[in-house]
Amino acid sequence: MAEAGIPPARVRCPALAARMVGLAASLPGDDPLHAVGEMHVAPRLRTTTGWRDVGHRALAWTGAADVKVEGRPTKTIPPWDHHGEAVTFCLDVGPGGQRAAPAHIRRGAAEATLEHLPPRATWIWSDGSAEGGVSQGGGGATITFPSGETREVRVPAGQLCSSTRAELCALKAALNAIRDADADIADDPIVIYTDSQAALRMLESGASSQTTHLGISI
To answer: Which Pfam families match (predicted)?
Structure first.
């Protein structure tokens, strides 16, 4: 197992139990699994414990015992509710945009893509990150309106979070800032630039396919 890079059972077991505890906590209060996850049952055997005890011990060991679990949405956007007909995604800037390409080639590919975008638009440049991809996440964005006015937004993404979540938090904060701005953007398009392929693919799947409150709100 070590040679194959497979975690041993002593590691895999608490990881799965902790995930189960998180799953139960993310469900609505009236869900049967949520109720089971909050039960306190005296063990019948001293040497045998259930996933609740193992999971809570694992979370305590990692310092995540008091971290709030984000709830799962109980209702998604129906597919017949048309959202985003005017939204397009571009996840490919050609072979020059690949990570393996030299920096000057990637820059040229990005500039060539920019040249084909509307000259008059509201521009969002967003980015997010998390330490090690798993903790202390945060994001920010620079917004440039057609008038030339520029605004910046910053937002925390959570004590425990993925880099993708941090990217989505930054994007949502930028969109909220545009929605609440006094700037006159009329019918000008909004162009968003972010380097998170995972976040874009998640949103590209459509409004009715979102499985998080964050994705649904965006």
So the answer is: RNase_H (PF00075)
